[in-house]
Design brief:
The chain is an alpha/beta fold and about 400 residues long. It has 16 helices and eleven strands. The chain has a seven-stranded parallel sheet, sandwiched between helices. The protein has a four-stranded mixed sheet with strand order 9-8-10-11, with helices on one face. Helix 4 runs parallel beside helix 5, helix 6 packs parallel to helix 10 and helix 9 crosses helix 14. The structure holds NADPH dihydro-nicotinamide-adenine-dinucleotide phosphate (NDP) and magnesium ion (MG). NADPH dihydro-nicotinamide-adenine-dinucleotide phosphate binds next to helix 1, helix 6 and helix 9.
Length: about 400
């Protein structure tokens, strides 16, 4: 048998990182952990290193690196600790690495993910913000390096599974009419609008169907997550925003659908557990056990569908506008959202103000072309500055 594939897991201490390591551990003959990264949860990172014996571990700064290196030596491990973005880019692009799980949350994941793309790695893309920020440049880099880009987001993984193999020829050339992106509607789907000003971060993070990191949980509650996913789908599948329709499906059993011109609609179903898309992408085009229980259709009994209400979910409208405007707009949308969600999680802004902050940032700054990564980071920084001004003006 050939040697096990070497896998780097960026964001190993997070929800996707842990699910990835769970799938990898089920298949020791196929996969070996090459590198793991953490950011704040460094005792968890140490425990993961003890469990998976990676060649490298990456932490944000030198002091933490020294402490982890000492602990690893004391545990009898030869794992080498690297530091910061440079360390992340190194383990993402090392010649020995076969695949990189990009599971850092937010803009912080962009440079390491691009480093993996440029090195021609197989990319398992969970970090949707990286693609949203830099869409055209990211996809150009994928084409240039010949990197295989596999979506981990459950919806995009579902769409990927329902698309014909040659979908890169363009949707209209392969008979696809539109993509139907399903959304659970999150914890506030039925909350009276007047109560939304008083919901807490804990309520926002209590997703009815999925267990996820805090930032994406808030994004799911506001449906900014679906907005980011709409932009993500446009880049992954070369679709226009008008070809992607969002459908609320509260059970989260159908993970998305592809509607063909002959009237066929293909869907992918499964229990809401990220180990399914992770296993699908890790083994693609083969199939492996993910540890996910088989779907019990009789227990589910019914599947419901609704149109999203943009008054309840203004972030979805803002994201669609940014998708239409393209250029710097998605990077601005993403950065303003990151600032607003952090402030909400810290208790500094109320839930409806997340959308107010993003809308103000998008209205204040003109959309410009982004021809290189520097322009992306300029748009990102400008949006963070404008969102920061909103917070200071409101005394937060
Ligand atoms: P978590 O918050 O659980 O994990 C985030 C990971 O990123 C952690 O390992 C964290 O380290 C690390 N991290 C955070 N900030 C930084 C930084 N500035 N620099 C380097 N590393 C950092 O998030 P999730 O696992 O839920 O989500 C990860 C990505 O996957 C997101 O982009 C999300 O949108 C996407 N995704 C997640 C899904 C899910 O079900 N969870 C579903 C679909 C997509 P530490 O914990 O040590 O601080
Ligand atoms: Mg998703």
């Amino acid at each position: 048998m050939s040697r096990p594939q070497q896998i780097t897991v960026l964001g190993a201490t997070g929800s996707i990182g842990l699910s990835t390591l769970d799938v990898i551990a089920r298949h020791p003959a196929r996969y070996q952990v090459f590198a793991l990264s953490g950011f704040t949860r460094l005792s968890e990172l140490l425990a993961l290193c003890v469990r998976h014996s990676p060649r490298f571990a990456v932490v944000p700064e030198a002091g933490a690196a020294r402490r982890l290196q000492d602990d690893l030596l004391a545990a009898g491990l030869s794992t080498r600790v690297l530091v910061g973005e440079e360390g992340l880019c190194q383990v993402a692009s090392d010649p020995e690495v076969d695949a990189v799980m990009a599971a850092i949350v937010g803009a912080a994941g962009l440079r390491p993910t691009l480093a993996a793309v440029e090195a021609g790695k197989k990319i398992l893309l969970a970090n949707k913000e990286a693609l949203v920020m830099s869409g055209a440049l990211f996809m150009q880099a994928v084409r240039k390096s010949g990197s295989v880009l596999l979506p981990i987001d459950s919806e995009h993984n579902a769409i990927f599974q329902c698309m014909p193999l040659d979908f890169s020829r363009g949707l209209s050339n392969v008979g696809v009419r539109r993509i139907l992106l399903t959304a659970s509607g999150g914890p506030f789907r039925q909350t009276p609008l007047a109560e939304l000003a008083h919901v807490s971060p804990e309520q926002a993070c209590a997703h009815p169907n999925w267990s996820m990191g805090r930032k994406i949980s808030v994004d799911s509650a506001s449906m900014m997550n679906k907005g980011l996913e709409l932009i993500e789908a446009c880049w992954l599948f070369d679709a226009k925003p008008s070809q992607v329709e969002v459908v609320i499906h509260p059970q989260s059993v159908i993970h998305s659908l592809v509607d063909y011109i002959d009237g066929s609609v293909l869907a992918q179903l499964g229990n809401p557990d990220m180990r399914t898309p992770i296993a699908n992408a890790l083994a693609w085009p083969e199939r492996i056990d993910s540890g996910v229980a088989p779907l019990d259709l009789f227990a589910i009994a019914r599947l419901d569908f609704q149109t999203p209400d943009e008054e309840r979910f203004p972030c979805l409208r803002l994201a669609r506008q940014a998708a239409e405007a393209s250029n710097s707009a998605p990077a601005m949308l993403n950065a303003a959202n990151e600032v607003a969600v952090t402030a909400f999680l810290d208790g500094r802004v109320r839930y409806p103000e997340i959308a107010s902050i993003i809308e103000e940032v998008l209205n204040l700054e003109a959309v410009v072309a982004v021809d290189d990564l520097e322009a992306v980071f300029i748009a990102d920084a400008k949006a963070r500055q404008l969102a920061g001004q909103w917070l200071s003006r409101h005394g937060r």
